[in-house]
Amino acid sequence: GAVVSQHPSRVICKSGTSVKIECRSLDFQATTMFWYRQFPKQSLMLMATSNEGSKATYEQGVEKDKFLINHASLTLSTLTVTSAHPEDSSFYICSARDLLAYQETQYFGPGTRLLVL
Amino acid sequence: DAKTTQPTSMDCAEGRAANLPCNHSTISGNEYVYWYRQIHSQGPQYIIHGLKNNETNEMASLIITEDRKSSTLILPHATLRDTAVYYCIVRVARGTASKLTFGTGTRLQVTL
Q1: How close does chain A come to B82, measured CA to CA in Å?
Q2: What pLDDT, in 10s, does the model give residues A83-94?
Q3: Which residues contact A18 (CB under 8 A, 6 or more apart)?
C-alpha cells in the first residue's frame, strides 16, 4: 500500500509551548488529509479534514485556534498544537487519501506520540 | 456513515483461520465496507474493502452477505503478528463526505 510518514514519531514538550507535527504522503499526491487523535485504550477520533490549498474542516468540539492545520502542498500537511497543556498529551495520527487508488483508499501514518509536561 | 457493531474481543489459535464479524444493518447502497487494523502503538493499516461482492487479497478475504447487512473478515492462517484491533467501517467511496469514522473495533488475540 501507499506510504504515509509522520515526523516526529514522539515529542515531549513543556506546557505552554507549541508543537508542529508533519504528515507526508511519500509516493502519491493527496488533496485530502485527515488528522486523528487517540487517547489510551480508546478508538481514533477524527479531529479535522485538511484540503490542499484551503482551510481545514474541523469536527465538532475541536478548537481550530488550538489545533492549526496547514495543507500547503499535495504531499504535506502539518498540525500545530498551540500552547500545549498536559491534557493535549495523546497519540496523533494523520491519514491521506490516494485519489488514484481503488475507491480512494485512505492510508495512515505511523502516528506521533505527544507528551506535554 | 452507517454505524457498525463488532464483538469487543476474540481469540484465535495460531495457524487457524480468524473470522471477524461485523454488523452494519443500516448500510446505504453507495457505502462500502472497509477493514483496517491497528497494531499496538502504530497507525491503522488498510486491509481490504468491498461493496457487495466477496473480495480477497494477500492479507485477507471479505465476505459480505447478500443483503449487505453484515460481513466477515477472514484471516486464513492467523499468526502472532495478526494480534491487533480490527475496525470495520462503512463509508461512501468518494467525495468530501467519505470520512473514516472508527468505532471500538474487535481486539483479536492470536495465541500459540
Answers
A1: 17
A2: 999 999 999 999
A3: A80, A81, A82, A83, A84
